[in-house]
Amino acid sequence: MPGVEGEVAVLEAFRRSGALRHGHFELRSGLHSDWYFQCALLMQYPDRLEELCRKLAAKLGRVARDTGGPDVVVSPAIGGIILGYEMARALGCRAVFLEKEDGRLVLRRNFEICRGERALIAEDVVTRGGRVQQTIHEVKARGAEVTAIAVLVDRREGVELPYEVVSLLRARPRVWTPQECPLCRRGVPLEHPGSR
Ligand SMILES: [Zn+2]
Q: Ligand 1 centre and the CA of 184: distance in Å?
């Protein structure tokens, strides 16, 4: 599978769930791509997600030896809610999520992140990192400390984040501006799978 790297069992779990999709997609960024990760389809299957989160937690073990395990997993809604919950189960800590209010991700529902707590950021797919950056900001604004960023799919290209990113899949799908997109040129129907 060109441009997607990861353990065979992980790729297989994505593929069996229909979460790894090949076609012609408009990403949130407005760019076009021939791959799309619809992680919600994977998250239909608690057993598959539980297993993947155990693998991700094991990969984080190396980071945890330096920083200590997290007290809390913090993730941006909606994509991160179920993932954060399963990561917290695998790591034996609690999970809270941020949600949009007036266009910003904030902590609601009387959730608390306390001063001095160690927080793991969890997100399903990271591309430009905007949601992860907002989550880091909210954690640090409360005097808590970020241990690492755990993601199912890392599809960043030249985007730096201020903490270590641990991922199950590394994807470098080809992306094009609509003007340059060869799929547009061939008239392949465009799908708009992302949340807006
Ligand atoms: Zn296109």
A: 4
Would you state the structure tokens that stand for residue 112, as one six-digit string? 């608390």
Start-end of H helices in the chain = 8-17, 39-42, 46-67, 79-91, 130-141, 182-185
Distance 178 CA to ligand 1 centre (A): 5
What DSSP string describes 37-66? E-HHHHTT-HHHHHHHHHHHHHHHHHHHHH
Q: Shortest CA distance to 111 belongs to which of 138, 145, 147?
A: 138
Distance 196 CA to ligand 1 centre (A): 18
pLDDT at 1 over 90: no
Residue 174 Cα to ligand 1 midpoint, Å, equals 11
Is pLDDT larger for residue 63 or for residue 121? 121
Coil, helix or strand at residue 148: strand
Mean per-residue pLDDT of the chain: 91
Distance 1 CA to ligand 1 centre (A): 20
In the predicted model, is pLDDT for residue 195 greater than 80? no
Q: How far is the CA of 68 from the centre of ligand 1 (A)?
A: 44
Output 116 or 4, whichever has higher pLDDT: 116
Adjacent-strand bridge partners of 74: 96, 121
